[in-house]
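User: My instructor asked us to take a sequence, write out its structure as tokens, and then describe one feature of it. I'm not sure where to start. Here is the sequence I was given:
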Amino acid sequence: MTYFRLLTQRCNIIRRTQTTDGNNKPVVTDLTVKGDVRCKLDSVRVRSQDVSEPGSIKSIFRAIIYLDGIEEVIKERDKIVLEGIRYEIVNINPVSNLQKLNHYEIEVLKEVDV
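Assistant: Let's start with the prediction itself. The structure tokens for your sequence are:
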């Protein structure tokens, strides 16, 4: 069995962008950078404490994601949407198998609205 077959979930990579409207006022929107990406979420907590911000609680988790052909697209602070839950990317670690990129191990903050 190849590693690729273990990635049984699908997620979307989104990026927050800011433009201006017709009145030259800033408008923030989420742009889907890449949809339907094979992935697998490892729900083991990397750190033991939650990060609290006004209006939300974030927990640090590790996600392992295979990024087939979009290595140049994903950036820190992008978001991963998996099963309706948003995760903010805080660290990207490429993993190779001697000759080529195999997958990325991505550390994320899980966003939970309160």
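For the description part of your assignment, you could build on this observation: The beta strands are 9-20, 26-53, 56-65, 79-82, 85-96, 101-113. Try explaining in your own words what that tells you about the chain.
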